[in-house]
Amino acid sequence: MDNKSRVLQALIEQPNITAAAKETKLSRRTLYNYLNDSDFRAELKRQREAVAVERWQALSAARDAALQTIVGLANDEGTPAAARVMAAKVLLQEATAADLKLDSLIQSADFQEECF
To answer: Distance between alpha carbon 73 and the CA centroid of its chain, in Å?
Structure first.
């Protein structure tokens, strides 16, 4: 793997420039030199966005599975009443949070410009 690829990977995985420099065994100045290159910054942004999307998809799938489990508990008459109430409370909280996020999205200028 060449230095540029190693630096990209380290900047994505590490919390800061110092840690990325230590990971790659390069100086912080070298990493800053890479970051001064607009093509490098664009590639770093693209890769960070790809990683963020992958993580979001994984978390979304896990959340969906967890919500299905909670729905099952809430609807299962064999589940103790206290557990069913807790499951219903979680579902209500999740639904309310989703509604608030959707309302916020709809109110955002970007959404309105794209959709209306």
So the answer is: 27
pLDDT tens, N- to C-terminus, the chain (116 residues)? 799 999 999 999 999 999 999 999 999 999 999 999 999 999 999 999 888 888 888 888 888 888 888 888 888 999 899 998 888 888 888 888 887 877 777 776 555 555 44
Task: Give me the domain span that covers residue 62.
Answer: 56-116
CA distance 30 to 101: 41
State the DSSP string of 2-31.
-HHHHHHHHHHHSSSHHHHHHHHT--HHHH
With tokens 């299905």, the residue in question is: 68
Domain membership flag for residue 100: yes
- Counting the structural domains of the chain, the total is 1
Residue at 50 is within a domain: no
Please state, in angstroms and rounded to a whole number, the distance separating the CA atoms of residues 80 and 12: 46
pTM above 0.85, yes or no: no
Assigned token pair, 9: 């990977």
